[in-house]
What we know:
Elements lengths: L13 E2 L3 E4 L6 H8 L2 H6 L8 H17 L4 E7 L5 E11 L4 E8 L8 H16 L4 E7 L3 H9 L3 E15 L5 E13 L7 H7 L10
Parallel strand pairs: 5-6
Antiparallel strand pairs: 1-2, 2-3, 3-4, 4-5, 6-8, 7-8
Amino acid sequence: MELRMTTTFPDVSISTERLVLRPFEEAxxxxxxxxxxxxxxxAWTSVPHPYTAADAEEWVRAIAPxxxxxxxxxxxxxxxxxxxxxxxxxxxxxTDWHTLATEASYVxxxxxxxxxxxxxxxxxxxxxxxxxxxxxxxxxxxxxxxTASQQVAQKIGCISEGxxxxxxxxxTQREDGSxxxxxxxxxxxxxxxEDLDGVVDxxxxxxxxxxxxxx
Length: 215
């Protein structure tokens, strides 16, 4: 069996009709700080709350680049092509270079929701992952009540494989504004190269932007 020597993703920029997915930059720190303090992101992720400028600096300067250089995955800042504004994050993590499988997660800034940006960025990353990097599986895990994230998984062609019961700690906001941990199930989704067949055409018919290239 041929051994795969590469154990890191390339330092890549991926372009779609409306978006550029690229490594984080110092200039992203203020927008990243603001985005990560959104209530929905606080509820469904494990990021610190409140999310400070120091947290953002550590993410941009150390945590995000180390995901790629240490071989765990890759972090991409999702930005608008025309305005360069930070839209969100796509994060590939827990990468297995032997089985060519990785886990994807994503967040979108509150101002950018409802525009199809999550679907557009995730599909672009999936195409790059399968066609350029020759991966065989992308996995997503969504909290049971996070219907918005589940809809993205469905739109890009993911198949629901089952439920990891009581496997995640989400957060809920109390009446006084504080946050409390709550346990929740995780729905496991998978996307294989053959699952992408026809998805782009279906999304185009539904009015989504095209996903032509990466660079």
